[in-house]
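Lab notebook, bench 4. Still working through the backlog of constructs that have no structural model yet. Next entry is a single chain of 106 residues. Request: give me the structure tokens for it.
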Amino acid sequence: MKTQTFDSVWDAIEDTPEVAQNMTLRCDLMIALDEYIMRNKMSQARAAELFGVTQPRVSDLVRGKTELFSLDSLINMAVAAGMKIELRITQGTPHGGDTNKKTAAR
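Model written out:
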């Protein structure tokens, strides 16, 4: 039996590299925002005020409800908190050349 390895959990479970990358970036932003809240000992209500969202929205964030957030909304929240977002792009394999692509039929 051949063992597959993946760069992230999203590469293993998502259908396309595009969705996997999007989920990876969203998770990274959510983790950074959650760490900001904890580091500053903020209540969810205070974080919501700072981020410009509702307290239930912050609750979704800290509970890791990734599917409820777009990259845009997470970037807006991070910038509202005074965070600087940097993007680094590196060369990967072409879209059709992903050797870790799922092969199971759905």
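Notes after review: Residues 98-106 have pLDDT under 50 and may be disordered. The chain has one domain: 9-84. Flag for follow-up if needed.
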